[in-house]
Amino acid sequence: MIRKRDLDQRISLITLGVRDIAVSQAFYSALGWEQADAEGGIVVFDLIGQTLGLYPLQALADDIGLPVDHLGHGAQTLGYNCRRKDEVAEVLSAAENAGARILKAASDVFWGGHHGYFADPDGHIWEVAFNPFSPLSDKGAFRWAGYPEQ
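and the corresponding structure tokens:
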């Protein structure tokens, strides 16, 4: 039996339901992400410590056992943190060039950071941020309180 303390604090796989798998695959590939091997109409990108999966929206609804219109579009964002403040605008530009819609241009935030937002071809919202209080690891991993100097 798994007890509460046995459940690791992690997200292993983020799956996005997409209307057109080829369009979404092209979008994330245009960002420079390398696709991992995948089968059965699923597109997978290995990230640092996680994986992003693209799955046909109807197939996802069928798998869950709900109609597509019941899946909704939750109030959530996917975060991409940058090492430097000026990187935020660069990442937003790369996303726009790949086909994203910019929702908010890079700007300073009241708490001392810098961020902006874009939507991918299916409307999944990404926040691109620089947080001076949470420096990334050498490999680019993010932790809320940052990593000690390496």
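(Above: one complete record from the training split.) The first helix runs from residue 21 to 30.
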